[in-house]
Fold this sequence. Notes:
Largest sheet: 7 strands, mixed
CATH class of the largest domain: Alpha Beta
CATH superfamily of the largest domain: P-loop containing nucleotide triphosphate hydrolases
Strand content: 5-15%
Number of strands: 7
Helix content: 40-55%
Radius of gyration: 19 Å
Amino acid sequence: xxxxxxxxxxxxxxxxxxxxxxxxxxxxxxxxxxxxxxxxxxxxxxxxxxxxxxxxxxxxxxxxxxxxxxxxxxxxxxxxxxxxxxxxxxxxxxxxxxxxxxxxxxxxxxxxxxxxxxxxxxxxxxxxxxxxxxxxxxxxxxxxxxxxxxxxxxxxxxxxxxxxxxxxxxxxxxxxxxxxxxxxxxxxxxxxxxxxxxxxxxxxxxxxxxxxxxxxxxxxxxxxxxxxxxxxxxxxxxxxxxxxxxxxxxxxxxxxxxxxxxxxxxxxxxxxxxxxxxxxxxxxxxxxxxxxx
Length: 293
């Protein structure tokens, strides 16, 4: 493999699956593409925002040119109004693990990786009326309806995770933590894969986040968000992607572009911090690599 910009990168075996997790803007996609180009394999998305077809620039999805250099799967395969869970992703990834092409699974959504390597509880679908009720509640109200054991195991600042826990408990009468305790065996044993986590220090990552957001703007991210103005629904997961609420506030005249940029960069840095915290708590058995500079 060519130089990738990361220290402590182990020798990648071409006949084993590769898992690459890391915070936003840390270079995960570039590493996945380097492995796929030199050794072969299909790059499979494990990022909850990159599944939507309306967002390419604002979610930093691989470009068409990058997608042409290696097979890419589960990128932009959903419409803007789809509700997509870790269970949905797990069902979509199953056939991609059974083919002859080595999977290279890359992304920043830790829950997708834990579902893959630790298993996922078979929770019944949440009825639409329960989801609609949850959409009308604020975060504190949702948290009040989640049992203590479940609260202790989720990011309580992540509305999507809190709302999911609330919906499950409301719909089934059983806490999410109880469902998770009955988790079936995982689809992929961690030991069977080459599992990498990009350990991106704050002082290295923060400037990259700002530069990347400016590049998104230069490439047309504002126009991408503006094109979805008439469909904007903040209750839908697609419109919670980092950068979308901030740019939509500018598009609708609430704030200046300078303010939108500043808020989006801060939100991205806060998200990266939550990702790092989650990875450190849940991915201790993975192989950690660091940027060279």
